[in-house]
Amino acid sequence: MLHGDKAAFETAAALPEQLTASTMPEIAFSGHSNVGKSSLINCLLGRRGLARTSATPGKTATINFYRVDDYRFVDLPGYGYAKVSAAEKKRWASLISGYFADDRDLRLVVQLIDSRHEMTKDDRQMIDFLVEGGFPFVVVLTKIDKLKKTERAKQLAAFEQVFAELDGLIVLPFSSEKGEGKAELLSILEEALTD
User: Fold this and answer.
1) Strand partners for 173
2) Cβ partners under 8 Å of residue 167, min gap 6
3) I need a labelling partner for 71 at 20 to 30 A (CA). Which of 5, 50, 53, 104 fits?
4) 3-state secondary structure at position 68
């Protein structure tokens, strides 16, 4: 069971050698800059300011580890922000690949995509990376509350088509503001952690 009241920020890693040792199961959160990873983590844990949110894309430049009971939430830095330097993009790529290449008890990757837009090239690359690496993942379509009913139906149908070839992939509409999808995602996470 998730006990958000006991959740605490543990550490941040800016370089692969700073990654904390994998001593317990982990759930990683991945997505484009400003997709709502920190808001989603706060929503799941019922804690407003645990994961720091920002209106500025590219703000999370480190991998942030949160201890929740006997497992961790891992907030990966957002990708695809155009205004960062080539050196910063290289550091980011090295950090992310270092995390995934490490021998970690990674139970699930929650891949966030903004429901209001088409998938980006970076989103596609990340999903291809997860598929090729054999990492278990679910897709969470964030900011679903920002869509009108007809737009929502259109976007959900479009995403369904995009992911049609990935058998058994769970694609979940989510709103951190309204809590839509929260109970379903918590149930998925609990299942992943008890497997």
Assistant:
1) 141
2) none
3) 53
4) strand
Tokens 């278990």 -> residue: 136
What's the length of the chain? 195
Question: Please, what is the Cα angle at 188 between 186 and 189, to 5 degrees?
Answer: 65
Domains of the chain: 4-194 (3.40.50.300)
Residue pair 42/51 in contact (Cβ under 8 Å)? The answer is yes
Write the pLDDT tens digit of every residue in 110-156. 999 999 999 999 899 999 999 999 999 999 999 999 999 999 999 99
The answer to whether 58 and 84 are in contact (CB under 8 A) is: yes
pTM: 0.91
